[in-house]
Amino acid sequence: MPSVESDALRVHFNSFTERLAANPDADLATIRAMLEELHARSAEPTDVTYAEVNVGKCAGIVCTPTKHTARGAVLYLHGGGFVGSSMHTHRKLGGHLARLLGAPVVVLDYRLAPEAPFPAALDDAAAAVEWLLGQGFAPEDIAFAGDSAGGNLVTALAVRLRDQGLPLPAAIVAFSPWLDLTCTGPTFETNAASDAFVQRPVAENMAAMYLNGTSPTDPLASPLHADLRGLPPIYVAYADQETLQSDSERFIERARAAGVDVTAELSPGMQHVYVLMAGRAPEADATVANAAAWLATRWGKQ
Protein backbone atom coordinates (compact mmCIF):
# COMPACT_ATOMS: atom_id res chain seq x y z
CA MET A 1 0.00 0.00 0.00
CA PRO A 2 1.21 3.55 -0.69
CA SER A 3 2.39 5.45 2.37
CA VAL A 4 0.35 8.24 3.93
CA GLU A 5 2.99 10.67 2.71
CA SER A 6 2.73 9.51 -0.90
CA ASP A 7 -1.05 9.84 -0.75
CA ALA A 8 -0.42 13.55 -0.19
CA LEU A 9 0.98 13.76 -3.71
CA ARG A 10 -2.28 12.38 -5.10
CA VAL A 11 -4.20 14.97 -3.07
CA HIS A 12 -2.00 17.76 -4.44
CA PHE A 13 -2.33 16.54 -8.02
CA ASN A 14 -6.08 16.04 -7.62
CA SER A 15 -6.33 19.64 -6.48
CA PHE A 16 -4.34 20.73 -9.54
CA THR A 17 -6.56 18.68 -11.87
CA GLU A 18 -9.76 19.87 -10.21
CA ARG A 19 -8.71 23.49 -10.55
CA LEU A 20 -7.95 22.95 -14.24
CA ALA A 21 -11.31 21.21 -14.73
CA ALA A 22 -13.08 24.11 -13.00
CA ASN A 23 -11.19 26.56 -15.18
CA PRO A 24 -10.63 24.82 -18.54
CA ASP A 25 -9.60 28.11 -20.14
CA ALA A 26 -6.94 28.81 -17.53
CA ASP A 27 -4.20 30.89 -19.04
CA LEU A 28 -0.60 29.78 -19.12
CA ALA A 29 0.36 32.07 -16.26
CA THR A 30 -2.20 30.34 -14.02
CA ILE A 31 -0.99 26.88 -15.02
CA ARG A 32 2.61 27.89 -14.37
CA ALA A 33 1.68 29.26 -10.95
CA MET A 34 0.08 25.91 -10.09
CA LEU A 35 3.18 24.02 -11.22
CA GLU A 36 5.42 26.25 -9.12
CA GLU A 37 3.61 24.89 -6.06
CA LEU A 38 5.24 21.49 -6.64
CA HIS A 39 8.30 22.49 -4.63
CA ALA A 40 6.23 22.14 -1.46
CA ARG A 41 6.00 18.38 -2.02
CA SER A 42 9.73 17.90 -1.32
CA ALA A 43 11.25 18.22 2.14
CA GLU A 44 14.30 20.42 2.57
CA PRO A 45 17.39 18.16 2.40
CA THR A 46 20.19 18.44 4.93
CA ASP A 47 23.92 18.72 4.26
CA VAL A 48 23.51 20.51 0.93
CA THR A 49 24.35 24.05 -0.12
CA TYR A 50 22.96 25.96 -3.09
CA ALA A 51 24.34 28.56 -5.48
CA GLU A 52 22.59 30.27 -8.37
CA VAL A 53 24.94 30.57 -11.33
CA ASN A 54 24.90 31.20 -15.06
CA VAL A 55 24.98 27.79 -16.75
CA GLY A 56 25.67 28.27 -20.43
CA LYS A 57 22.75 30.29 -21.78
CA CYS A 58 20.56 30.00 -18.69
CA ALA A 59 20.42 30.32 -14.97
CA GLY A 60 20.86 27.24 -12.84
CA ILE A 61 21.13 26.11 -9.25
CA VAL A 62 24.16 24.07 -8.24
CA CYS A 63 23.25 21.71 -5.39
CA THR A 64 26.51 20.78 -3.62
CA PRO A 65 26.70 18.17 -0.85
CA THR A 66 28.79 19.05 2.18
CA LYS A 67 30.30 15.56 1.90
CA HIS A 68 31.64 15.57 -1.65
CA THR A 69 32.66 11.96 -2.21
CA ALA A 70 31.99 11.23 -5.91
CA ARG A 71 34.02 12.28 -8.92
CA GLY A 72 31.31 13.56 -11.25
CA ALA A 73 28.42 15.97 -11.68
CA VAL A 74 24.79 15.63 -12.74
CA LEU A 75 22.92 17.89 -15.15
CA TYR A 76 19.27 17.84 -14.02
CA LEU A 77 16.43 18.94 -16.30
CA HIS A 78 13.11 19.53 -14.55
CA GLY A 79 9.67 18.41 -15.63
CA GLY A 80 6.64 20.63 -16.17
CA GLY A 81 5.35 19.66 -19.59
CA PHE A 82 7.96 21.84 -21.34
CA VAL A 83 5.84 24.88 -20.41
CA GLY A 84 6.20 25.23 -16.64
CA SER A 85 8.15 24.51 -13.45
CA SER A 86 11.68 25.78 -12.90
CA MET A 87 14.96 25.26 -11.13
CA HIS A 88 13.16 26.38 -7.96
CA THR A 89 10.45 23.68 -8.09
CA HIS A 90 13.13 20.99 -8.40
CA ARG A 91 15.89 22.48 -6.23
CA LYS A 92 15.11 20.25 -3.25
CA LEU A 93 14.89 17.10 -5.37
CA GLY A 94 18.27 18.03 -6.83
CA GLY A 95 19.58 18.50 -3.32
CA HIS A 96 18.41 15.07 -2.19
CA LEU A 97 20.08 13.48 -5.21
CA ALA A 98 23.29 15.44 -4.62
CA ARG A 99 23.45 14.45 -0.95
CA LEU A 100 22.92 10.76 -1.70
CA LEU A 101 25.34 10.76 -4.60
CA GLY A 102 28.04 12.86 -2.96
CA ALA A 103 28.38 14.97 -6.09
CA PRO A 104 27.00 18.30 -7.34
CA VAL A 105 23.71 18.39 -9.20
CA VAL A 106 23.05 21.32 -11.55
CA VAL A 107 19.32 22.06 -11.96
CA LEU A 108 18.98 24.01 -15.20
CA ASP A 109 16.39 26.77 -15.70
CA TYR A 110 15.98 26.10 -19.41
CA ARG A 111 13.69 28.20 -21.58
CA LEU A 112 10.03 27.20 -21.71
CA ALA A 113 7.46 26.89 -24.48
CA PRO A 114 5.50 28.44 -26.04
CA GLU A 115 7.78 31.48 -25.87
CA ALA A 116 10.76 29.26 -26.69
CA PRO A 117 9.48 26.11 -28.43
CA PHE A 118 11.40 23.04 -29.62
CA PRO A 119 14.39 22.82 -29.81
CA ALA A 120 15.19 25.74 -27.46
CA ALA A 121 15.28 23.61 -24.30
CA LEU A 122 17.62 21.14 -26.00
CA ASP A 123 19.86 23.98 -27.11
CA ASP A 124 20.01 25.24 -23.53
CA ALA A 125 20.81 21.76 -22.23
CA ALA A 126 23.59 21.34 -24.80
CA ALA A 127 25.06 24.67 -23.72
CA ALA A 128 24.93 23.47 -20.11
CA VAL A 129 26.98 20.41 -21.06
CA GLU A 130 29.58 22.72 -22.58
CA TRP A 131 29.56 24.72 -19.35
CA LEU A 132 30.18 21.57 -17.29
CA LEU A 133 33.05 20.60 -19.57
CA GLY A 134 34.42 24.08 -19.05
CA GLN A 135 34.29 23.54 -15.29
CA GLY A 136 36.76 20.69 -15.72
CA PHE A 137 34.42 17.69 -15.76
CA ALA A 138 35.28 15.02 -18.31
CA PRO A 139 32.38 13.63 -20.38
CA GLU A 140 32.65 10.29 -18.60
CA ASP A 141 32.19 12.08 -15.27
CA ILE A 142 28.95 13.80 -16.29
CA ALA A 143 25.52 12.21 -15.92
CA PHE A 144 22.11 13.44 -17.05
CA ALA A 145 18.92 13.20 -14.99
CA GLY A 146 15.38 14.50 -15.35
CA ASP A 147 11.72 13.87 -14.65
CA SER A 148 8.69 13.84 -16.95
CA ALA A 149 9.45 16.35 -19.73
CA GLY A 150 12.96 16.59 -18.30
CA GLY A 151 13.29 12.82 -18.74
CA ASN A 152 12.46 13.39 -22.39
CA LEU A 153 15.03 16.16 -22.68
CA VAL A 154 17.95 14.29 -21.12
CA THR A 155 17.31 11.31 -23.39
CA ALA A 156 16.89 13.46 -26.49
CA LEU A 157 20.06 15.35 -25.56
CA ALA A 158 22.02 12.10 -25.55
CA VAL A 159 20.57 11.19 -28.95
CA ARG A 160 21.56 14.60 -30.29
CA LEU A 161 25.10 14.38 -28.93
CA ARG A 162 25.51 10.91 -30.42
CA ASP A 163 24.26 12.06 -33.82
CA GLN A 164 26.69 14.99 -33.73
CA GLY A 165 29.58 12.69 -32.88
CA LEU A 166 30.11 14.40 -29.52
CA PRO A 167 31.04 12.66 -26.25
CA LEU A 168 28.16 11.09 -24.38
CA PRO A 169 27.45 11.26 -20.65
CA ALA A 170 28.34 8.40 -18.35
CA ALA A 171 24.68 7.62 -17.68
CA ILE A 172 21.10 8.88 -17.77
CA VAL A 173 18.41 8.77 -15.07
CA ALA A 174 14.81 9.31 -16.14
CA PHE A 175 12.03 9.60 -13.56
CA SER A 176 8.50 9.09 -15.00
CA PRO A 177 9.74 10.23 -18.42
CA TRP A 178 7.38 11.61 -21.06
CA LEU A 179 8.99 10.10 -24.15
CA ASP A 180 6.22 10.06 -26.77
CA LEU A 181 4.59 13.37 -27.62
CA THR A 182 2.02 11.65 -29.85
CA CYS A 183 0.29 10.89 -26.52
CA THR A 184 -0.88 7.52 -27.85
CA GLY A 185 0.49 5.15 -25.20
CA PRO A 186 -2.17 2.66 -24.06
CA THR A 187 -1.93 3.67 -20.40
CA PHE A 188 -3.31 7.10 -21.29
CA GLU A 189 -6.57 5.14 -21.35
CA THR A 190 -6.04 2.30 -18.89
CA ASN A 191 -4.53 4.50 -16.14
CA ALA A 192 -6.70 7.56 -16.74
CA ALA A 193 -8.73 6.91 -13.60
CA SER A 194 -5.68 6.37 -11.38
CA ASP A 195 -3.45 9.24 -12.57
CA ALA A 196 -4.36 12.36 -10.61
CA PHE A 197 -2.16 14.66 -12.70
CA VAL A 198 -1.49 13.79 -16.35
CA GLN A 199 -4.49 13.39 -18.63
CA ARG A 200 -4.37 13.20 -22.42
CA PRO A 201 -6.02 16.60 -23.21
CA VAL A 202 -3.56 18.46 -20.95
CA ALA A 203 -0.61 16.50 -22.36
CA GLU A 204 -1.70 17.15 -25.94
CA ASN A 205 -1.99 20.87 -25.24
CA MET A 206 1.46 21.05 -23.67
CA ALA A 207 2.97 18.98 -26.48
CA ALA A 208 1.46 21.32 -29.08
CA MET A 209 2.94 24.38 -27.36
CA TYR A 210 6.37 22.76 -27.22
CA LEU A 211 6.36 21.30 -30.74
CA ASN A 212 5.10 24.46 -32.46
CA GLY A 213 4.48 22.55 -35.69
CA THR A 214 7.32 20.03 -35.37
CA SER A 215 6.20 16.44 -35.89
CA PRO A 216 5.55 14.65 -32.58
CA THR A 217 7.50 11.70 -33.98
CA ASP A 218 10.65 13.76 -34.52
CA PRO A 219 13.27 11.68 -32.67
CA LEU A 220 14.61 14.69 -30.78
CA ALA A 221 11.10 15.64 -29.66
CA SER A 222 9.98 12.10 -28.85
CA PRO A 223 12.94 9.86 -28.00
CA LEU A 224 10.69 6.80 -28.12
CA HIS A 225 10.86 7.21 -31.90
CA ALA A 226 14.64 7.67 -32.03
CA ASP A 227 17.35 5.23 -33.03
CA LEU A 228 18.57 4.34 -29.54
CA ARG A 229 21.72 2.44 -30.49
CA GLY A 230 24.87 3.54 -28.74
CA LEU A 231 23.23 5.43 -25.91
CA PRO A 232 24.81 5.25 -22.43
CA PRO A 233 23.29 3.19 -19.61
CA ILE A 234 19.86 4.41 -18.57
CA TYR A 235 17.94 4.11 -15.28
CA VAL A 236 14.18 4.43 -15.76
CA ALA A 237 11.94 4.78 -12.69
CA TYR A 238 8.19 4.96 -13.20
CA ALA A 239 4.87 4.20 -11.52
CA ASP A 240 1.94 1.92 -12.25
CA GLN A 241 -0.66 4.61 -11.52
CA GLU A 242 0.56 7.09 -14.13
CA THR A 243 -0.75 7.53 -17.66
CA LEU A 244 2.84 7.67 -18.88
CA GLN A 245 3.58 4.14 -17.66
CA SER A 246 3.55 2.81 -21.22
CA ASP A 247 5.99 5.52 -22.34
CA SER A 248 8.56 4.01 -19.99
CA GLU A 249 7.72 0.42 -20.81
CA ARG A 250 7.85 0.87 -24.58
CA PHE A 251 11.08 2.82 -24.30
CA ILE A 252 12.69 0.17 -22.07
CA GLU A 253 11.77 -2.52 -24.59
CA ARG A 254 13.09 -0.54 -27.57
CA ALA A 255 16.28 0.52 -25.79
CA ARG A 256 17.12 -3.01 -24.72
CA ALA A 257 16.46 -4.26 -28.25
CA ALA A 258 18.95 -1.62 -29.44
CA GLY A 259 21.60 -2.96 -27.06
CA VAL A 260 21.32 -0.22 -24.43
CA ASP A 261 22.00 -1.15 -20.80
CA VAL A 262 18.68 -0.31 -19.11
CA THR A 263 17.83 -0.64 -15.43
CA ALA A 264 14.10 -0.32 -14.71
CA GLU A 265 12.30 0.38 -11.44
CA LEU A 266 8.51 0.16 -11.33
CA SER A 267 6.88 1.52 -8.17
CA PRO A 268 3.42 0.10 -7.45
CA GLY A 269 0.69 2.43 -6.27
CA MET A 270 2.67 5.57 -7.09
CA GLN A 271 1.74 8.69 -9.02
CA HIS A 272 3.54 10.49 -11.84
CA VAL A 273 6.85 12.02 -10.65
CA TYR A 274 6.38 10.61 -7.17
CA VAL A 275 10.07 11.36 -6.59
CA LEU A 276 8.98 14.95 -5.89
CA MET A 277 7.99 13.65 -2.46
CA ALA A 278 11.68 13.13 -1.61
CA GLY A 279 12.23 13.55 2.10
CA ARG A 280 8.56 12.96 2.86
CA ALA A 281 7.55 9.62 1.31
CA PRO A 282 9.59 6.42 1.72
CA GLU A 283 8.78 5.37 -1.83
CA ALA A 284 10.30 8.56 -3.24
CA ASP A 285 13.32 8.28 -0.95
CA ALA A 286 13.91 4.69 -2.03
CA THR A 287 13.84 5.54 -5.74
CA VAL A 288 16.15 8.55 -5.42
CA ALA A 289 18.55 6.46 -3.31
CA ASN A 290 18.44 3.62 -5.83
CA ALA A 291 19.16 6.00 -8.69
CA ALA A 292 22.04 7.60 -6.78
CA ALA A 293 23.57 4.21 -5.94
CA TRP A 294 23.27 3.18 -9.58
CA LEU A 295 24.83 6.44 -10.80
CA ALA A 296 27.73 6.08 -8.40
CA THR A 297 28.82 2.95 -10.24
CA ARG A 298 28.81 4.66 -13.64
CA TRP A 299 31.37 7.44 -13.31
CA GLY A 300 34.35 7.06 -15.62
CA LYS A 301 33.12 3.88 -17.32
CA GLN A 302 33.35 5.09 -20.93
TrEMBL record:
GO terms for molecular function: hydrolase activity. Pfam families: Abhydrolase_3. The active site is at 148. SUPFAM superfamilies: alpha/beta-Hydrolases (SSF53474). It comes from the Bacteria. Residues 74-275 form the Alpha/beta hydrolase fold-3 domain. Keywords: Hydrolase. Belongs to the 'GDXG' lipolytic enzyme family. This is Alpha/beta hydrolase.
